[in-house]
């Protein structure tokens, strides 16, 4: 309506001005004074009013000159004004139409965008809402209603603060306060209250533009229900605590070695077992300072790994306090992101190994005591046999006593050798001769063989075998027979080959050929493996005995 009044006013003023100008100027007046008015009216009105105003201006202009005084130039100017006014009106009409089309297209795009936004807003999997700076809910979607259990009209009367659990409202206040700073959005995990009073965990995100540092009136609120994730996190945390407790109770630790990067990660117990302070990770080479050099290749080898293979090694660790600990590393070798790695659990085996060593020592002690009892039980029959073997030369009691004492001393030397610690090496020949020394001169005994040195432990065990053979021969074989003969020899085919030991007796045996099973049989290997050596063979007959034994050079310390 206002545009019409302005157009009429412009038209009236223009016509009055044209009439007065024509009256005062006369024929020299042109129609150009109408052009600005036509442009203004075409801008304010549509095409038809602009054309009508142009025709009216031409008619008034011709009338003002007098119908009988109109010249050809006036007609030309009038026609030119009509054409110009029509062009101006059509041009403005076309521009207005184009602008309307552009505006309609943009409006349609805006409406489509708004429609998509509203569709997404209403059907989103997360809760959306708009709130003002006072926390009043201005707009919200259906998902937020479903989360909270409120109807739309009920939720519209609430404030955002009332939906937050009382214990988490301080977090909401911090979020609102943070929006007034540089950041445009803030988020926090809080508990929200449903209509029935139950609570659920949600990720609450507030966002807003901050022009000139002033909080805007509209705040966009995003609510994401994370109750399931929180429950899963709590279950995972509880499971991890239980696993850590179980591992700690069992003195077990977790570890992982990235062989490509050379990085070791482990739990606190793992570093404690190694005697190192806790750390998130360490270079693999740093462990070389505590791992025994002989065991380092087990830990540091970086060969190509087959997919998912078991890994089980034991290493020795020298802790900074000087103690040596045995550590078992059990797990898997695998590839992760094309990185070969080892991962698993570690266990401190030191106490278990110490217990095993103590048990082994106790068992060895028990075996030694059993052997000593056996040897002691055999001692008196041997002494009795020695007394019987030594005859009284020419009824010389002193000579008889001297000979008997020599034999007993030789027997004592052998027993002292067997009772001593086997920490010194001995010659095989000396061990045999020392055992048979009490019977030299009274029996036919031959000892032969190359020079063979034996380490302390092997020498002690071998001396026990020779002692058992000698005792058995004294009781039942050649040494108990004045016509008996004993031949002892050993041979070796060369460096690296076994030493073959043989004990041969000839003469009538005083017992049956049945092998008796006891501690003595166990020593020489009739019942099981011998104390030293392998492949024992024992052959007995009424006229003799043959015993052979192979001694590996590695076992006897050569």
UniProtKB/TrEMBL annotation:
Domain PAC: 186-238, 311-361
Domain (PAS): residue spans on this chain: 113-176
The enzyme's E.C. designation: 2.7.13.3
Class in the EC hierarchy, top level: transferase
Any Pfam family the entry gives: PAS_3
Molecular function terms, GO-annotated: ATP binding; photoreceptor activity; protein histidine kinase activity
Keywords: ATP-binding, Chromophore, Flavoprotein, FMN, Kinase, Nucleotide-binding, Phosphoprotein, Photoreceptor protein, Receptor, Repeat, Sensory transduction, Transferase, Virulence
InterPro entries for this protein: HATPase_C_sf, PAC, PAS, PAS-assoc_C, PAS-like_dom_sf, PAS_fold_3, Sig_transdc_His_kinase_HWE
Keyword Membrane in annotation: no
Gene3D superfamilies the record matches: 2.10.70.100, Histidine kinase-like ATPase, C-terminal domain, PAS domain
Catalytic reaction annotation: ATP + protein L-histidine = ADP + protein N-phospho-L-histidine
Protein name from the UniProt record: Blue-light-activated histidine kinase
Organism (species): Mesorhizobium helmanticense
Organism classification: Bacteria, Pseudomonadati, Pseudomonadota, Alphaproteobacteria, Hyphomicrobiales
């Amino acid at each position: 309506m206002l545009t019409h009044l302005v157009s009429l006013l412009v038209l009236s003023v223009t016509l009055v001005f044209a009439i007065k100008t024509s009256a005062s100027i006369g024929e020299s007046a042109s129609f150009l004074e109408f052009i600005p008015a036509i442009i203004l009216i075409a801008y304010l009105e549509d095409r038809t009013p602009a054309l009508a105003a142009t025709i009216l201006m031409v008619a008034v202009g011709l009338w003002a000159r007098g119908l009988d005084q109109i010249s050809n130039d006036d007609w030309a100017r009038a026609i030119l004004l009509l054409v110009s006014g029509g062009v101006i009106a059509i041009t403005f009409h076309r521009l207005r139409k184009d602008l309307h089309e552009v505006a309609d297209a943009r409006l349609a795009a805006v409406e489509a965008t708004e429609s998509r936004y509203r569709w997404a807003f209403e059907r989103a999997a997360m809760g959306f809402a708009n709130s003002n700076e006072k926390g009043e809910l201005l707009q919200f979607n259906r998902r937020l209603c479903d989360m909270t259990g409120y109807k739309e009209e009920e939720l519209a009367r609430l404030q955002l603060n009332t939906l937050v659990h009382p214990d988490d409202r301080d977090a909401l206040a911090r979020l609102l306060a943070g929006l007034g700073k540089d950041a445009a959005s803030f988020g926090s995990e809080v508990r929200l209250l449903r209509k029935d009073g139950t609570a659920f965990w949600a990720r609450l995100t507030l966002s807003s533009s901050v022009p000139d540092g002033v909080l805007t009136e509209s705040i966009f609120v995003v609510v994401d229900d994370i109750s399931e994730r929180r429950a899963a996190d709590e279950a995972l945390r509880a499971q991890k605590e239980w696993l850590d407790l179980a591992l700690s109770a069992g003195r077990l630790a977790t570890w992982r070695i990235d062989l490509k990067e050379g990085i070791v990660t482990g739990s606190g117990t793992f570093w404690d077992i190694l005697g190192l302070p806790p750390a998130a990770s360490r270079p693999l080479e740093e462990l070389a300072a505590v791992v025994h050099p002989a065991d380092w290749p087990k830990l540091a080898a970086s060969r190509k790994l087959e997919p998912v293979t078991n890994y089980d090694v034991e290493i020795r660790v020298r802790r900074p306090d000087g103690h040596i600990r045995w550590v078992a590393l059990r797990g898997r070798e695998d590839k992760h992101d094309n990185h070969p790695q080892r991962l698993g659990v570690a266990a401190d085996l030191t106490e278990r190994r110490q217990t095993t060593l103590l048990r082994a020592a106790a068992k060895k002690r028990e075996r030694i005591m059993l052997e000593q009892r056996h040897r002691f039980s055999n001692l008196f029959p041997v002494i009795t046999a020695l007394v019987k073997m030594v005859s009284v030369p020419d009824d010389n009691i002193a000579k008889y006593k001297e000979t008997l004492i020599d034999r007993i001393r030789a027997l004592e030397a052998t027993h002292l050798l067997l009772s001593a610690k086997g920490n010194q090496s001995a010659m095989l020949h000396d061990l045999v001769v020392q055992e048979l020394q009490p019977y030299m001169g009274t029996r036919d005994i031959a000892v032969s063989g190359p020079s063979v040195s034996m380490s302390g432990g092997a020498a002690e065990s071998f001396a026990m075998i020779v002692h058992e053979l000698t005792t058995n021969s004294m009781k039942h074989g050649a040494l108990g027979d004045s016509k008996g003969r004993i031949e002892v020899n050993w041979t070796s085919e060369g460096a690296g080959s076994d030493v073959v030991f043989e004990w041969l007796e000839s003469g009538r045996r005083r017992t049956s050929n049945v092998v008796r099973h006891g501690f003595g049989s166990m020593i020489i290997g009739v019942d099981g493996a011998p104390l030293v050596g392998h492949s024992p063979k024992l052959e007995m007959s009424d006229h003799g005995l043959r015993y052979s034994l192979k001694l590996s050079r590695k076992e006897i310390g050569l």
